[in-house]
Amino acid sequence: MSRPSIRLIAWFALALFVLVAPGCRRRSAEVVEYKDLIPPPAEPLIKDAPEIGRHGGRFVLGETNGPKSFNGIMASETSSTDITDRLFAFLVEYNNATQQYEPGLAKSWEVAPDGITWTFHLRQGAAFSDGHPITAEDVLFTFSLVYDDSLHPSLQEMLEVSGEKFKVSAPDPYTVVINTVRPHTGLLDALCPQGLAILPKHVLEATYKSGNFAAAYNVSTPPDKLVTSGAWRLVQYVAGEKTVLGRNPYYYGFDKRNQRLPYLDELVYLVLPDQDAADLKFRAGGVDGVDDVKPENYRWYEDNQGSGKYRLYDLGAAQSTHILWFNLNKVQPGVRGRKPVPGKQIGEPFVDPVKYEWFNNAVFRRAVSMAIDRDAMIASVFFGYGEKNWSQATSSNKEWHSPDLIRHDYNPAEAKTLLAGLGFTDANGDGILEDRRGHQVTFTLKTNSSNTLRIAMGNFIRDDLAKVGIKMALTPIDFNTLITNMHQDFQYDAILLGFQSGVPPSPHNGQNVYRSTGESHNWFVRQQTPATPDEANIDRLLDELLTNQDRQAQKAALKEIENTINQQSWFIWLPILKMKLPVSTRFGNLQPSIMAHRIIWNIDRVFVKPVQR
Amino acid sequence: MRTYVLRRVLQTIPLLLGISLMTFLLLQLAPGDFLNQMAENPGISAETIEAMRVRFGLDKPWYIQYGIYLQNVILHFDFGQSFSRHQPVFEVLYEGFTNTLILAIAAAVVTWGLAVPLGMIAAVKQHSWIDRLLSLVAFVWLSIPEILSGLLLLMFAARTGWFPVGGMRSLDYDELDGISQFFDIAHHLVLPALVVGLIPLASRMRQMRGSLLDVLRLDYVTTARAKGLSERTVIIKHALRNALNPMITLFGYTLGALVSGSFIAEIIFSWPGLGRLTLDAILTQDQYLVMGAVLMASLVLIVGNLIADLLLAIADPRISYD
Fold first, then answer.
1. Please, which pLDDT band fits residue B38 given cuts at 50, 70 and 90?
2. CB-hemisphere CA count at 13 Å for A203?
3. Sign of the C-alpha dihedral, residues A446, A449, A451, A453?
């Protein structure tokens, strides 16, 4: 080898050393002890947790997306609310572990016998991160933001009953009275995290009056200008990289030993767009938790748990579901400026009339449901980490789940009998059934192409249906096209999609699904009058659910709604994932939950465990 | 030369107009709009979505939307707001653009820093084992998809701990002094720059090799050798200068593709560049953000090509634009 190439190699070696060297650098062990210099409020919120922690340390969470806004009222997608729910206070807190309401900024509340007057008593001495007291004024201000029709945040519907806004007043600085006009059992849900985030009037009123509220508290707001009411405040935001939260020194939450919460110095959200890369980073110890792990990797985590570096938590059944439904939409007179469809009469179905005759028959839909081998689907598509599900209130929903709903599970023999009963026979012996008039029984299933799990499920269903003589074609399409198909032009036979549950996972925000006029009453949306007596009955039961104060009566109403839907097989329920999530074992008080903000819902109580020597 | 540059700059105006119109039309042709993603959430009603559509101006026909957009761009130099972030488009794009540029430049350094010397060695030692080995390694790397090589290098980083597993800065970045900050970024930069930079290496190296071989066959090289100059002087002082000429053109053109070349690597290495941002904007149909990103990438491409043409004129006295 000649001299120049030796020199070249030497240079490369040197460059490599210089670049690798920083990785070997030791992190300075210097820790600044946190001293709580601010006097505690008159009425602190004492938060319950399994262990008493100690101050210090940080938790790093890997997330696929960064936040898009820190505006607690305007932010709507999870990557933002994941953070805003930590930044702002809520009148009511929700405990993901017990699935019960707990006091928040409101130390207590009561509802008058009329069922519509709710009185909330605010905590005295609570303050924003700039020290300014939080009072009823701020609650009223936040309500006025939500009720502003030019802003129309998605939260507005949660704080309305049948389109009517609540009347909110403040008899004194620490009392808020909410008159819901009509009995409304979903009020507390709307006041929990993911609901009404209390914003500082003294900071935002001027912005609001100048008409710029939607852009207020966006990601370019300097951290010291972003005054918060919750346990945390913003320390740093680096686009596409990370968001760092620090403790709000004025937070009103304390542990049982009167130490101010949160325990951690910092909560870091690190953007890791690629799930496989995030997985590697977690395994290398670069993050303490990730928001999602692919089910095919669960086994690896189970097998390697012995290292003691992390624990794989079993979160139970997912609360986002997978359903299949047939298109029963009919042309209706134009609503909200939409013109009736050209070439179609009012009252005509959007699908081919031949297919409509099959789809509209509950027996056909039941036969399809019975043709699907859900156990085999769990074993293959879900890698064994799934369970059968028959309603939106899945088995991890402690409050609303009914284990004994009507179901039409796998029974291919019965499915064949049902189809034969409809007069479907395979006259020409090609393995595909024909109906009485000789039409081949075939349809197309659409699903969103970005979801590989659903595509796998669709393929599985196609094979199962072929076994009972139904020919199904699977068409994965772009999500936005799918949404247009299901809400606007109704160009589909059947769709495989799902619903996410809110937090708390109560049926009150499922109104759009159950009610016949609902936008998400997917099999036949926005009905002007209920299409069937059963749907009219569901509407009635829904009113009962929303207005009856008795929890047992509400549950009975929900169960009847779910049973009616299952009896009719309007929704054909498919298995759901049983989620697992690995989290570092360095921390105490972690209680990961299946519901939104899985690891960090109680992050204000999480602490770094002392290192055992 | 000055008139030439001026003419080229003026030509970009109708070009950018055309690009913006095409992008806008394509966005309109795609089904649905930004608000469709809310439909999976049953808690959001049609009224809310309608109200948002009006607020974003998406209820108007496309030509009126485009007209308003153009008017704002020309009169106020306002490129619109991102729907999801409630922020001006360039405020969103600026930081990502800088980071993408850092990665792209590092990748170019890798490509050219290796291609020129390795191509030289391959040419000088034509048909030797080192020539064959270099080609083999370069072509193997060329044929591995970016997504795989990226993940492989990440696994390497996770196993050895020699390099950080993705990201651009360590968490303690802000507590470091200036020099440590520089090395911190450089340390994070190594693997993604390798992934992006090694892909075009094979072709650049072969081009360098071929170009140098061509020159080495010319008479003046023989003359130089006959004069008794050392082989080193012959190659570096005489042959290389002329062999580099076509490479300069190539280098100029790669400048143009810089910004869009590293999107996949950015996502795998959690590099906070334009890649994820643009992809998200397209998927959610955050239309003005998409417009901004496309215009920015086009502008870089146009400027890159202009620089390439100018570099050529500077390097080769036989070319002039007047």
1. low
2. 21
3. positive
Spatial distance between the Cα atoms of B195 and B264, rounded to a whole number of angstroms: 10
Q: How confident is the model at residue A33 (pLDDT cuts 50, 70, 90)?
A: confident
Identify each DSSP E strand in chain B by its residue range: 81-82, 87-88
Q: Is A440 helix (H, G, I), strand (E, B) or coil?
A: strand
- Rg over CA atoms, chain A: 28
Q: Kindly provide the ipTM of the predicted complex, given to two decimals.
A: 0.78
Which residues in chain A are contacts of B51 at CB distance < 8 A? 149, 152
Pairwise CA distance, residues A154 & A402, whole Å: 29
pLDDT one-digit tens code per residue, A149-188: 888 787 887 888 877 899 999 999 999 999 999 888 889 9
Q: How many of the other CB atoms lie within 10 Å of CB of A164?
A: 11
In what helix (H) or strand (E) does residue B124 lie, and over which residues does it extend? helix B89-124
Distance CA A558, CA A538 (A): 9
The nearest CA of chain A is from the CA of B174 a distance in Å of: 10
pLDDT digits (tens, 9 = 90+) for A408-424: 999 999 999 999 999 99
Closest by CA to B12, choosing from B260, B268, B300, B321, is B300
Give residues with Cβ within 8 angstroms of A317, minimum separation 6. Answer: A387, A389, A394, A395, A396, A576, A577, A578, A579, A594
CA of B4: how far to CAs of A422, B9, B245, B250, in Å?
79, 9, 22, 21
Contacts of A486 in chain B (CB under 8 A): 39
Do the strands A471-477 and A442-448 form a parallel or antiparallel pair, or are they unpaired? parallel
Nearest CA-CA distance, residue A183 and chain B, Å = 19
A 10 A CB-CB count for A47 gives: 19
Q: B46 and A526: CB-CB below 8 Å?
A: yes
- The whole-angstrom distance between B74's CA and the closest CA on chain A is 23
CB A174 within 8 A of CB A75: no
Q: Quick: pLDDT tens for B83-120.
A: 878 888 888 888 888 898 899 889 888 888 998 899 98
Encoding tokens for residue B191? Answer: 């693997």
